[in-house]
Design a protein that fits this description.
Shape: globular
Number of helices: 7
Oligomer: single chain
Helix content: 10-25%
Number of strands: 19
Number of domains: 1
Strand content: 25-35%
């Protein structure tokens, strides 16, 4: 278990991509050592938060199902309202851009060079998600995360925000009045951090683009402190956005990388103190961190040659928003699952929709960035019915056409390893 924060009351699940340091796309440059598989991802949690009745937090609902393969009952809590009621929920968000300044202090990058077969170049660099026109913040707000897009017919043909469309497809509510939307209220002032040489490094990637990596515990401590100082209302979800800055785990362990984002829940510091399950009127803050990655910095733009290598633009944020929707408090246990598409997770018992298909993407038009071929790269997601093994519940865990992933046949046709998403999850 990787601890993502020093806070005992913090629960977080993250998207990690161990091969994010590797070459971009299908590079032809000589490499003495093969890169790791691009979808070699893993995540960790640190505790969980279960809001009590009357807790001040985001709108949420719960249901219980019985897994027919083991006869066990499980309870899941999700954002919004019960789909059977057909209501529309809008959750407020606030974007907090995080700027990081790195120093060249002669950090030893030999392990990275030896592993990936190319030379990195530490340098003085400032990663600012508010720079450029449009900036990462502006592009995020203009992306399918916040703006309505029409999806292809084989994805359900729905129109809406990415998360809303995913939830409607997942519960067979396409074309209904059921919605779970997000609405950004403001972009808070940029928060700047000077990264000590011992806690991070900037480097020149194979593509020529510059990126930064920061030690995950150092970052999570800063994030927790920031959440306490900003005093964001618990009914609002802060989205912490970085520019090409990812996380690694362990002092100077640059190759133990990279975490592109995570979501979690905590008692907001600065709003008092106490146990997460105390008195019934606690504030429980859910939050999201995601790295906005500029095109051609990391792997993957071809749905033909690299269908599982879509690390660009909103990919990390789409992963985290979808997982936040299905598991906002990081406490939705399921019968453990195992899949060859993500062997790095091993046997895991959490309902985290992006993890089994980490890195898999589908194109959406409208990206202003020509380097991305004017496409957005949102991630595929796994529906709740896969984790629940078609569990029995009055709710009915049925997607719009019975599929088990958002992409459906697009997922199962990627390779034999992905054919397993044509049926429910297999046990360990």
């Amino acid at each position: 278990m990787r601890k993502t924060s020093g806070a005992a009351l913090l629960a977080a699940s993250g998207l990690a991509l161990a091969a994010a340091l590797g070459p971009v796309g299908t590079a032809t440059a000589a490499s003495p050592k093969p890169a790791k598989p691009v979808n070699d991802a893993r995540f960790g949690t640190a505790g969980s938060v279960t809001p009590t009745y009357g807790a001040r937090t985001i709108a949420h609902w719960s249901f219980t199902y019985t897994d027919p393969t083991n006869g066990q009952s499980y309870t899941a809590t999700m954002v919004g309202s019960d789909p059977r009621q057909g209501g529309s929920t809008t959750i407020k968000t606030e974007i907090i851009p995080l700027e990081f300044s790195f120093v060249d202090a002669g950090q030893d990058m030999s392990a990275v060079n030896a592993l990936y077969g190319y030379t990195t170049h530490p340098q003085n660099w400032t990663a600012d998600p508010t720079a450029g026109s449009p900036s990462d913040v502006d592009k995020t707000l203009a992306s399918p995360m916040f703006q309505n897009k029409t999806y292809d017919a084989d994805l359900g043909g729905d129109t809406g925000q990415y998360g809303d469309v995913f939830m409607r497809a997942q519960f067979n509510k396409i074309g209904s009045g059921y919605h779970v939307k997000i609405a950004n209220q403001s972009v808070l002032p940029k928060q700047s951090f000077a990264v000590p040489a011992s806690q991070g490094v900037a480097y020149q990637r194979f593509s020529g683009a510059t990126a930064g990596i920061v030690e995950s515990n150092w970052f999570s401590t800063k994030l927790q402190q920031l959440m306490g100082s900003l005093n964001i209302d618990a009914t609002t979800v802060p989205i912490f956005l970085t520019h090409n800055v990812l996380l690694f785990s362990g002092h100077n362990s640059y190759t133990n990388c990279c975490i592109l984002g995570y979501h979690g829940a905590a008692m907001p510091l600065g709003h008092g103190y106490g146990q997460a399950n105390g008195g019934g009127n606690n504030e429980v803050q859910t939050f999201i961190y995601a790295a906005y990655t500029t095109p051609n910095t990391y792997t993957g733009f071809s749905p033909t040659t690299s269908p599982t290598r879509g690390i660009a633009d909103i990919h990390a944020l789409s992963h985290e928003v979808a997982e936040w929707l299905d598991d906002p408090f990081v406490n939705n246990a399921v019968q453990p699952w195992l899949t060859p598409t993500a062997p790095q997770y091993g046997c895991t018992g959490v309902l985290e929709t992006g993890d089994p298909v980490v890195g898999v993407w589908f194109p959406l038009t409208g990206n202003p960035d020509a380097d991305a071929n004017h496409l957005w790269h949102p991630e595929d997601e796994v529906n709740a019915n896969w984790f629940a093994r078609n569990g029995t519940t009055p709710l009915g865990l049925n997607s719009w056409d019975g599929r088990y992933t958002f992409m459906g046949p697009r997922t199962t046709s990627i390779s034999p390893a992905y054919a397993g998403f044509g049926h429910v999850a297999e046990g360990c």
